[in-house]
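TA notes, week 10

Several of you asked for a full example with nothing omitted. So below is the full record: structure tokens for the whole chain, then the designed sequence directly under it. When grading your own attempts, check the secondary structure regions first.
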């Protein structure tokens, strides 16, 4: 079975995903407790935007391994793809209960909270995502834009400036910063 799993990894690495799915399902037919096969299937299905099959594989994985942060995180992504945001929120919260510094889970919790107008919760989770080092480069833009929208201009300035280091040609962002400088009577900076 381990050899078959290694072969499935080769299929995945070479983007032969249909073969990998077949190989992983064969492994599970031989050993329904082979955890790695479930999570790999979940990842493949997620990459193919097949959220139902991903959800099924990851749910099976979590039944066998209920304290796995990555399983809950990936399940949260499935639920987001299925537009089931309450379930996604629950999955991401379980992720951070297991690993309280899982930055990307905080990022998605913030996005969901922002989408349902729980801005205070979104701010808290954007801060935690930033504090714990999320992989998402647009964090500062999302966080700063939320603060700007809430008219918390002073707080919005730093994340927007930080994002400007990544995307210096973003006209909308430059306009927001110009507005902030103007509103704070920092006229020379608003012109620059």
């Amino acid at each position: 079975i381990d050899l078959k799993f290694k072969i499935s990894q080769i299929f995945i690495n070479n983007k032969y995903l249909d073969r990998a799915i077949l190989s992983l399902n064969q492994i599970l037919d031989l050993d329904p407790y082979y955890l790695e096969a479930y999570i790999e299937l979940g990842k493949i299905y997620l990459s193919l935007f097949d959220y139902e099959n991903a959800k099924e594989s990851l749910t099976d994985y979590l039944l066998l391994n209920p304290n796995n942060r990555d399983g809950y995180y990936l399940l949260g992504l499935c639920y987001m793809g299925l537009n089931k945001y309450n379930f996604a929120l629950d999955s991401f919260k379980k992720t951070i209960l297991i690993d309280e510094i899982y930055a990307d889970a905080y990022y998605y919790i913030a996005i969901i909270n922002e989408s349902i107008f729980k801005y205070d919760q979104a701010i808290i989770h954007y801060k935690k995502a930033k504090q714990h080092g999320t992989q998402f480069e647009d964090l500062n833009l999302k966080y700063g834009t939320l603060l700007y929208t809430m008219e918390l201009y002073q707080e919005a300035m730093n994340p927007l400036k930080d994002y400007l280091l990544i995307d210096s040609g973003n006209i909308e962002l430059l306009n927001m910063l110009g507005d902030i400088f103007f509103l704070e009577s920092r006229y020379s900076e608003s012109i620059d």
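The mean pLDDT is 92. Use that as a sanity check on your answer.
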